[in-house]
Inverse folding.
């Protein structure tokens, strides 16, 4: 499986070049995994195994190797397999300047869901054929550089479809939203409107964020919801009026839930 | 005494300075004293931090208690040494809140003395002071609405914001004129002459109703909103306002806005048969006295045509075909309908006359009421009635439209006992008195009330509200949502309804040429809540909102709609109802492809089938 989180970072790491004095050269598999983990805040070992098409045991060994090289940290942060995240050295190796920190406990479920969405997308043949790429929330947040307004909302990811792609939607940019727990309908509607009306890139001057007459940044918003949140999202979409046709709703992939959550859902 | 006061002011120089500056700012901007008091209250955290820092560093409660005095001493010491900045920093935590309090108190004394006409050099000073304060308040309100994003249409709590407050009498003095959403769902009255900003205010009210209605609908509290505007003047001006309304309502969430009869149609034939008979008969002019006989004949013939065994007519042509003695006899000759057959035969000689009258009526009415289409086809309807050019036609159209709306509300999907499924309807009528001969506006008001509609009546003057004074007073007295009064030459009737308030008035003793003593007497008397002179002098965009014995003078914020379409594409020959046509692009739509490519297949491949109520119920 190929990853395409950030072309520049990918190329640097995949070419096996030394990205920092004293850093070791990484194999292609390592690079793909490291860049993916860097972009998604952290990853559980079963997801890492799926990403690299290896067994969970091999993924555990790979994570241990990263840990030994001080590139990553691993721990059992919540239910299910161990989590792996990159240390400062690991992030430097990937060529990104994110704050090194383990995934926040309160966001574990959300991070897993978003990672699973990305994995599902990248596994789709259409995505690979079009050479689309994922721009993570972490990257968008880093672009803002701490200038995120209290009312601004960042999507959980963006999918960029290159212009030269074979699909009819080539050239579009999609906003991806993972909705595990229902918000209020009015808040969800407001988020949808905000995403659909934005014209500028994240990190652009405030005056360029929403310029009347310019094409919207996100051609559509893809909502991946849990069954609990689907009703709210549907009603919020219904309140959008003519904009509703630019919002797509799907259920989250089955593997998107933390194991305990899955059990809870089954027992309900 | 004066020397002692001067010494005190000098000793407390920093406080004096802050008080003077805050007093001057409040005077210049027309603020209420409360604003300065609130400013002082906001300084409390600064004082707390300052005292806490002193307590921590000195570890002495006594020293902390003495800190304001010590700061004052230190300030003078630094001041004498020439270290003015250090002196200012040292005394600021104590001087700023105290100065604001002192400034606010002084300003409240000044306002009170002027309000009771006891202040100033002459009795006329109070009048000049009030006029000057009005100008300052207008300037502040204008500046407030000019700041981008300062006046949203709705607050986070869902309250409607009309604009910036200029002056409030009997209402809370806020920065913005905020109305709870319920007021927009009640009856309201808007009075204002041409060029006073009435349309701007109405558009803001309609947009707010639409936005609030969509929020409530999204929250599952009520059905979707519907705004129906009856513009009873017509002409090119009405088309221009219709275009502006369409763009503004689209931006507030309306999916489609229909302009009747120019772009969309309604079907009179969708009325229930009983109502259809009554409406059709009322559309025809008929006299009184001996003419009542012909009215009865006409009603009988129309009832025969509508209640024919084959069902009610579906179009004008169908109805006119039935107004034929042969058709009526044939329709009722199937057996079992002998009474109707006998009636059709006896009325046979009058049927051609009735047909002639209806043929003439429908020719004059045009195709606007011949369908297809219903109020369900759009979120907002802007109906243009040519009340100025063709009064009789407009009167008939008004009657038909109100009947259609009433019928639609009565038969709209959703249980009448379940508010969550009922549509929220606003009926806005402008200059309805021009077309209210067949349907008195009071009757419209009562009918709307029984149907649960909110009615908004607007007119250019008190006399344009209704035909008789009795009707005007009944309208104004039942406007539970409040009255918006813009500049109008005759505001007294509405102002009288707004009520009075008690004020203190003082007299001054004249002691010489243009010299008055402070000695005099004061008395309490009642005066109008809304000053008629102020109403007559309101500028464009200013209005007085009168509600429950109070008035809030407001500088209304104009809603800016997206640009109109660059080119007007003529409708194709087959253009019928708006519901069949794609919506025109909004500002948000501009720049994106007309139709987005379908990505369902790709998403299904990646994530499975789309979310639908069935899959949601069953889970996955």
């Amino acid at each position: 499986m190929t990853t395409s989180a950030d072309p520049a970072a990918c190329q640097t790491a995949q070419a096996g070049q030394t990205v920092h004095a004293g850093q070791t050269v990484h194999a292609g598999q390592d690079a793909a995994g490291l860049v993916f983990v860097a972009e998604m805040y952290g990853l559980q070992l079963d997801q890492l195994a799926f990403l690299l098409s290896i067994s969970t045991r091999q993924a555990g060994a790979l994570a241990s190797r990263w840990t030994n090289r001080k590139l990553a940290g691993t721990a059992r942060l919540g239910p299910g397999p161990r989590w792996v995240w990159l240390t400062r050295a690991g992030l430097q190796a990937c060529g990104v300047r994110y704050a090194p920190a383990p995934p926040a406990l309160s966001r574990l479920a959300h991070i897993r869901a978003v990672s699973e969405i990305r994995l599902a997308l990248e596994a789709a043949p259409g995505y690979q054929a079009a050479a689309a790429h994922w721009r993570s929330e972490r990257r968008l947040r880093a672009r803002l550089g701490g200038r995120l307004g209290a009312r601004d909302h960042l999507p959980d990811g963006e999918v960029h479809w290159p212009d030269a792609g074979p699909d009819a939607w080539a050239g579009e940019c999609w906003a991806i939203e993972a909705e595990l727990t229902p918000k209020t309908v009015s808040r969800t509607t407001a988020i949808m409107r905000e995403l659909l009306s934005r014209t500028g890139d994240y990190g652009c001057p405030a005056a360029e964020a929403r310029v009347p007459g310019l094409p919207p940044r996100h051609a559509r918003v893809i909502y991946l919801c849990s069954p609990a949140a689907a009703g709210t999202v549907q009603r919020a979409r219904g309140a959008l009026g003519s904009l509703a046709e630019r919002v797509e709703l799907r259920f989250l992939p089955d593997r998107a839930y933390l194991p305990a959550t899955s059990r809870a859902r089954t027992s309900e | 005494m004066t020397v002692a006061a001067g010494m005190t002011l000098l000793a407390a120089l920093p406080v004096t300075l802050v008080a003077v500056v805050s007093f001057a700012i409040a005077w210049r901007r027309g603020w209420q004293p409360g604003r300065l008091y609130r400013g002082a209250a906001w300084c409390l955290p600064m004082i707390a931090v300052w005292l806490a820092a002193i307590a921590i560093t000195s570890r002495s409660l006594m020293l902390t208690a003495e800190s304001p005095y010590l700061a004052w001493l230190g300030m003078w010491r630094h001041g004498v040494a020439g270290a003015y900045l250090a002196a200012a920093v040292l005394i600021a935590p104590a001087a700023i809140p105290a100065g604001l309090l002192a400034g606010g108190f002084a300003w409240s004394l000044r306002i009170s003395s002027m309000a009771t006409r006891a202040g100033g050099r002459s009795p006329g000073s109070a009048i000049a002071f009030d006029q000057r304060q009005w100008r300052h308040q207008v300037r502040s309100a204008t500046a407030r609405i000019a700041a981008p994003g300062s006046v949203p249409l709705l607050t986070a709590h869902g309250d409607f914001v009309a604009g910036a407050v200029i002056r409030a009498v009997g209402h809370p003095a806020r920065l913005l004129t905020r109305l709870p959403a319920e007021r927009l769902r009640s009856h309201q009255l808007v009075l204002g002459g041409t060029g006073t900003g009435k349309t701007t205010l109405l558009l803001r009210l309609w947009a707010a109703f639409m936005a609030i209605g969509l929020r409530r609908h999204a929250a599952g509290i009520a059905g979707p909103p519907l705004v129906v505007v009856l513009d009873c003047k017509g002409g090119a001006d009405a088309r221009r306002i219709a275009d502006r309304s369409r763009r503004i309502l689209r931006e507030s969430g309306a999916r489609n806005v229909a302009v009747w009869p120019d772009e969309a149609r309604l079907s009179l034939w969708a009325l229930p048969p009983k109502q259809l008979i009554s409406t059709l008969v009322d559309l025809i002019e008929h006299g009184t006295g001996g003419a009542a006989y012909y009215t009865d004949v006409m009603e009988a013939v129309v009832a025969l045509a509508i209640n024919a065994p084959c069902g009610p007519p579906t179009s004008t042509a169908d109805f006119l075909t039935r107004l034929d003695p042969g058709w009526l006899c044939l329709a009722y000759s199937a057996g079992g309908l002998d009474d109707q057959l006998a009636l059709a035969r006896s009325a046979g000689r009058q049927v051609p006359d009735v047909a002639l009258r209806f043929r003439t009526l429908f020719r004059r009415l045009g195709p606007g009421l011949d369908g297809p289409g219903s109020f369900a086809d759009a979120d907002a309807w802007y109906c243009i009635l040519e009340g100025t050019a063709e009064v009789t036609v407009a009167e008939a159209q008004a009657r038909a439209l109100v009947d259609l709306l009433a019928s639609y509300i009565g038969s709209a999907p959703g249980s009448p006992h379940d508010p969550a499924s009922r549509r929220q309807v606003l009926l806005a009528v402008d200059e309805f008195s021009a077309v209210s001969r067949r349907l008195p506006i009071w009757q419209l008001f009562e009918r709307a009330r029984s149907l649960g509609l909110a009615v908004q009546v607007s007119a250019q003057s008190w006399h344009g509200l209704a035909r008789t004074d009795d009707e005007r007073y009944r309208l104004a007295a039942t406007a539970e949502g409040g009255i918006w009064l813009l500049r109008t030459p005759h505001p007294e009737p509405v102002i009288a309804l707004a009520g009075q308030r008690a004020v203190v008035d003082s007299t001054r003793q004249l002691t010489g040429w243009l010299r008055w003593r402070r000695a005099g007497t004061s008395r309490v008397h009642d005066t109008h809540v809304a000053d008629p002179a102020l109403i007559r002098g309101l500028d464009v965009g200013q209005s007085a909102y009168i509600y429950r014995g109070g008035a809030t003078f407001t500088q209304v914020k104009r809603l800016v709609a997206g640009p109109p379409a660059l080119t007007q594409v003529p409708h194709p020959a087959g253009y019928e109802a708006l519901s069949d046509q794609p919506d025109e692009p909004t500002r948000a739509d501009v720049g994106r492809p007309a139709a987005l490519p379908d990505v369902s297949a790709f998403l299904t491949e990646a994530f499975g089938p789309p979310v639908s109520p069935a899959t949601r119920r069953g889970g996955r």
About this structure: Chain B touches chain A at residues 214-215, 217-220, 250, 253-256, 379, 562-563, 583, 586-592, 596-600, 602-611, 613, 615-616, 619-620 (CB under 8 Å). The longest helix of chain B spans residues 84-115. The radius of gyration of chain B is 33 Å.
